[in-house]
Amino acid sequence: MGEGDTIWAPSVLPHGALGTLSHHPQLHFGRKMESKVSEGGLNVTLTIRLLMHGKEVGSIIGKKGETVKKMREESGARINISEGNCPERIVTITGPTDAIFKAFAMIAYKFEEDIINSMSNSPATSKPPVTLRLVVPASQCGSLIGKGGSKIKEIRESTGAQVQVAGDMLPNSTERAVTISGTPDAIIQCVKQICVVMLESPPKGATIPYRPKPASTPVIFAGGQAYTIQGQYAIPHPDLTKLHQLAMQQTPFPPLGQTNPAFPGLDASPPASTHELTIPNDLIGCIIGRQGTKINEIRQMSGAQIKIANATEGSSERQITITGTPANISLAQYLINARLTSEVTGMGAL
User: Fold this and answer.
1) Does an H or E element contain 68, and which?
2) Per-residue DSSP letters for 318-345?
3) Residue 258, C-beta contacts closer than 8 angstroms, at least 6 positions apart
4) CB 18 within 8 A of CB 71
């Protein structure tokens, strides 16, 4: 951001500053405010999160981390890249607004360079636009879209960039993806305008940040052992094995001649009971898993019957009914809680 660039930031004045505005040599309320007023205590620090694919992250990091080191030094922004062998990674850029814009400019130009390089080896003639995905708290997306889409339309028209706000939140978070594409210059102008909106309307309530999931590993049970598949090998998994064995002990077979195990005789296992849980809609996906894989795993390991009620109109929660012996139920609850905990903390434990 150059010396003469300006940013609207009427909402980020320090508390109590309104009374002193007329005596402040640098501020005229309601007029444009220089972004260089750090000596006036108004140097705004922002954090912007970007969602990138592994290949894009590799390009930003560069050989032996040289590219990202250069970006950090030249922009003055802090640039952090989330850990993990995930297909997606989060790149967090923090700093004063002008440092953020410099970092963005460097990322946008780097991506353009990558596009030009890839085109030299391909027959394509038209150059695809540079595309960046921001991760924005859903509570700020309304301000970004504006009444009847007015704000987003204004941003598109004044910058020449394409801007799309995802309709759904990212899995297990309260954030949405905002995709920006265009020339590097259009993208930089667009990010400046988005930053102004984010400064003017801070997020409401708590934000659950999006954490990309590691590529999940399937679990196989064989001979009382639990294995996870890694590449071509089945690796024994002691924690899951223990839980699996515990589950097996808790579901004794019904005595011979007894046809209906749900109503056992006095000499059989403890009677089945039912336990109900309610889970927020946006977290139900991590318990069900892709095509029901996780919930089936929990059923198999706990030995309990688990029913998930359909979503009801106007409700933000779903009912889960667990039926089985007290031990089955507690194991199912433990497994469900472990999934929720790993989801919310991003640990990906079980």
Assistant:
1) helix 66-75
2) EEEEEEE-HHHHHHHHHHHHHHHHHHHH
3) 264, 265, 268
4) no
The two three-digit tokens of residue 186, written as one number? 């259009």
Residue found under tokens 């929990």? 298
Which DSSP string do the residues of 172-188 spell out, in sequence order? TSSEEEEEEEE-HHHHH
Number of other CB atoms surrounding residue 252 within 10 Å: 14
The CA distances from residue 349 to 303, 334, 340, in Å, are 21, 13, 10
CA-nearest of 45, 33, 46, 41 to 15 is 41
CA atoms of 273 and 293, how far apart (whole Å) = 25
**pLDDT (tens digit, 9 = 90+) per residue, 26-62?**
333 333 343 443 333 346 888 999 999 888 999 999 9
pLDDT digits (tens, 9 = 90+) for 254-298: 444 444 444 444 444 566 788 888 888 888 888 888 888 889 888
Q: Could you report the per-residue pLDDT of 291-330, keeping only the tens digit for each? A: 888 898 888 888 889 998 888 777 888 888 999 888 788 8
Q: Whole-model pTM? A: 0.53
Distance CA 220, CA 236 (A): 9
Closest alpha carbon to 193 in 233, 229, 221, 160:
160
Tokens of 35: 């972004």
Q: Give long-range contacts, CB 8 A cutoff, 24+ apart: 310-315.
A: 311/281, 315/281
